[in-house]
Amino acid sequence: MKDASPQTIYLTDYTPPTYLVDQVDLTFRLSPNATRVISRIAFRPNPDAVSKRFFLHGEELTPISSSIDGAPVTPREVEGGIEVDVPDAPFVWEAEVEIAPAANTALEGLYMSNGMYCTQCEAEGFRKITWYPDRPDVMAPFKVRIEGDEPVMLSNGNPTGSGDGWTEWTDPWPKPAYLFALVAGDLVAREDSFTTMSGKHVDLKLWVRPGDEGKTAFGMEALKKSMKWDEDVYGREYDLDIFQIVAVSDFNMGAMENKGLNIFNTSAVLCSPETSTDANFERIEAIIAHEYFHNWTGNRITCRDWFQLSLKEGLTVFRDQSFSADMRSPSVCRISDVLSLRGRQFREDNGPLAHQVQPDSFVEINNFYTSTIYEKGAEVIRMLKTLVGDEGYKKALDLYFDRHDGQACTIDDWLTVFQDATGRDLGQFKRWYKQAGTPRLRVSEDWNDGTYQLTFTQTTPPTPGQEVKEPFVIPIAVGLIGPNGDEVVGTQVLEMTEGTQTFTFEGLAAKPVPSILRGFSAPVILERETSAQERAFLLANDTDEFNRWEAGRSLAKEVLTALITGKEAPQAIYFDALASVLREDHTDPDFRALALAIPSADDMAQTLFDSGVTPDPDVIHDATETLKQSRAEYFQDMLPRLLSEMTVTEPFAPTHEQAGKRALGHGILQMLTRLDGSKAAQALFDRADNMTLSLGALACLLNAGKADAALATFRDKWQDDALVMDKWFMLQVAHADPDKAAETVTRLTQDPAFTMKNPNRFRSVFGAFAGHPAGFHQKDGSGYRLLADWLIKLDPINPQITARMSGAFETWKRYDGDRQSLIADQLDRILATPGLSRDTTEMISRIRGA
Ligand code: BES
Ligand code: ZN
C-alpha cells in the first residue's frame, strides 16, 4: 500500500470527489502498539462527480473488518488505499483498523510523544489513522469517542460526554480530515475564558505536561489578544464553546490549527523569562495568532486541494504579520519579515527549488510547505491590499467570508472575490501566483528643470520549468526627499504594469533623492546604482523607517563586498552614518539594533553571486570578522554609555520596549567583547536573570573562545529543560570556528542528551550547522559528508525532517567547481540509498537537478 514509485500530482488533474461525507463517527481504543480505530462514515454520491469510483486513502493500516450498510465487504487493495463496490445511493461505511502509534517515528498520523498520544494530520496524515477520502474538499462533521486509561483524552469540537475510561467530542463544523486531532495523556491545563463580541462564553485551555504549568501564562495572553484582534480587525468571532491548545515535545512543525484543538510544538508555545528569549516570546505570540487565525482562514474556509495551500497559509501569515505589527512596532516587524523573506524565499526563488505560489505539480505535498507558499504568499496579499486600498480590502474580505464560509476554495475564488468587491481586473495580478522567480527592478532617474523622472525596468530570471516571464503588476511606493532632508513628495504608490515604465514628478525646486520601494511594497530586488553618500543621506533622513534601515543595510553590504573582493570600502561613511543612528535617543532601540546588524554570510554569498562573483564562505567569514573588529574599534568610545542606557532596570517583561533595549544592548556587548577581553560578557553571564541576557552573554563568550566554564554551568543548570538544552546545542554549533564546526557537530551528536528522534534537538544541531556557511562549506567536503551521513540515518525515522534539512544543499550552484563536485557526490550518495523516502528523494533530486 505504500507508494512504490513516486507519482507526480498535477493541478489540472483535479476532479471533484466521487462521494461526499455527511457524518463521521470515530471510536479510538487506545493502546501504544495496537490502537483500534472504528469508523462509521455516512457517504452519499456527489452530484458533481465525473466518476463513480469509490476509493478511500489508507496507509500502514492493519484491516480488521469493513462493511457497507451492515453487510461485510472485502475491499480491493490499490496503490495508496482501497477500492470498494458501493451503491449509487447514500450508504454507511463501517470499518475497524489497527495502528501502532508507539512505532510511528515519522510523527505523522497518530503517534506517541513523551508518553502521550497525539496526532498530526496535515497534509495527508489522516490516511494513517483510518480509511478515508483524505482530501481537503471532503468536509464533514465529526463525532469522536476515545476509550483508554489516559487521564486526559481530547479531540476537536465541544465535549459532549465522558465517563470512566472514555470521553466523547462533537465538532459541528464540517471539516476536512487534515484538521482532525486527538490527544491523550497525563496533562494539566491552564484555564481561562474569553467572551466573544456577541457575548458568547468560550472556555480556553492550554494543556501541558505536569511541571510545565509555569510556562503557559504568556501563551494564554497571546491567545486572548489574537481572539480580540480577529474580532476588531476582521470581524471574525470564535465558533465553539471551547478552544484548546496542547504542547507536544515531538512535533515536525511549529504548530497546527486543528479545529478547536491546536497542537503546538513545545518550542512554539511554552515560555518563561528564565527559559526563553525575547525572540522566543515574539515568535510564540505570532504563531499562536497564526494558528488561531486559521479558524477562519483555513478551517471555516479551507482549500479545495493542496495546490491552493497559499490560500490559507499566505493569507494567514499576512494576518499574523499584521497582528504582530499592531502588537509591536510596525516598522521593526516589517524589517524582520523582509529579512526572513530575503533569507528564505529569495534564496529558494534563486535556486533549484524555485516554484510558483500556486504550483502546477508536486510529488510530496509535505515538501511544499515552503517559504514561497508562506512568505511570498503573504507578500502577494500585502500587494493586493496596497493596490485595492484598505477599504477595498475590507470589502473583499467581508465578501470572501460571506460567499465562501463552509467551502473548500481555490486561489481563483479568492481573486474573483477581489474583482467582484472592487471592480478591479486582476488578470495580470494573478501572475504573482503563477510565475516563479524574484523580479529584478532596475531604476534610472532623470532631472530636468523642475521635472523629475523615474524609469523602472522589470525582468524576472528563468526558474526551473519557466524560461520566459510576463511583466508583473508592481506597486512601487515612492517618496522624494529634498536636498535639505525634508520630504518634498510624500509616499505615493506607483503602479507598474509594463516591462519598462516612466513616472514623472513636476514642479520640484531641486533635484530630490528618491526613496523607492518604501515599506518594501513589493517582493522584488531593487537594482539601483547610487553613491555611498546618498545612502548615508537616506539612512539619516528618510521618513520611511524601512527605507532608512534599507539604506544602512546596503551600505553595510557595499563595505563588506569591497572587503571581500579587495576593493576600497566606503567604511568611514558607513561607520559615521551608523554611529549617528545609534546615538538617536528618540529612535526605537529595536530599530537601532536592526540597523547595527551585519548581513549574514548566506545573504552575502547570494549578493556576490548575483553580481557575478563566486562566493567563498571562508573569505566572507574573514571579511565579516574584519568589519566587526574595525567597527567595534571605531565605536569604542560610545559603547559603555550606550550599554548602560540599554540596561533594563525594571523586572523582565517580554515587551517590545524592553526587548528592543536588550537587542541593542546585545549588539553593543558583541562589540565590547572584542575589546575588553570579554569581561563585560562574563559579568553579564554571571548575573543574568533571564534567558535573553544569559544566552546573549554566552554567545559573546563563545565568539571570544572563552565559554568553556559558562557552557558547563549552563548545562548543569538546564539539563532537565529540553527547550533550553536545544539552545545549548544550537549555540555551540552556530558560534564554532569554521574549521571546528564539523567537529563540534560530531561531538554534540555523541552527547547523551542528543537524539535524532526529537525534531527540535536534531534541528538545533544540524539547522545551526547548515546556517553556518563557513563551517558547513569547508573545502575538504567534511561538512557535506557529515550532513549527508545524518540525513541518511534520519530518513527511515523521520522523512519530513530529513527532506526539510536537505535544503542545506539548495544553494550549491553558487559555489566554486570543487565545492560543487563535492556536494554532487553527497547528493548522489543520498539518492543511491536503498529505500530512501519519497520526501527526501524528491528534495534531493530537485536540488541535484537530475
Ligand atoms: N498548517 C500549518 C502546520 C503544518 C504545516 C502542518 C505543514 C503540516 C504540514 C500551520 O498553520 C503553520 O503554518 N505553522 C507554521 C508556523 C506559522 C507561524 C507560519 C509552522 O509550523 O512553522
Ligand atoms: Zn498556517
What labels describe this entry?
alpha+beta, 8-stranded mixed sheet, 31 strands, binds zinc ion
Topology, element by element:
Layout: E1 9-10, E2 19-29, E3 35-45, E4 55-57, E5 62-68, E6 71-72, E7 76-78, E8 81-83, E9 91-99, E10 109-113, E11 116-120, E12 140-147, E13 152-155, E14 158-163, E15 166-175, E16 182-185, E17 188-195, E18 201-208, H1 217-234, E19 242-248, E20 255-256, E21 261-265, H2 278-293, E22 302-303, H3 309-327, H4 330-349, E23 361-362, H5 371-404, E24 408-409, H6 411-422, H7 431-434, E25 440-448, E26 451-459, E27 474-481, E28 487-496, E29 500-505, E30 513-516, E31 525-527, H8 532-541, H9 545-565, H10 571-583, H11 589-596, H12 601-610, H13 617-635, H14 639-645, H15 656-673, H16 679-687, H17 691-703, H18 708-718, H19 722-734, H20 741-749, H21 759-770, H22 773-776, H23 782-794, H24 799-805, H25 817-831, H26 838-848
Parallel strand pairs: 2-12, 18-19, 19-21, 22-24, 25-31
Antiparallel strand pairs: 1-23, 2-3, 3-9, 4-8, 5-6, 5-9, 7-8, 10-11, 11-16, 12-15, 13-16, 14-15, 17-18, 20-21, 25-26, 26-29, 27-28, 27-30
Bound molecules: ligand BES and zinc ion.
Ligand BES is lined by residues 122-123, 253-257, 286-287, 290-291, 294, 313, 317, 320, 369, 374.
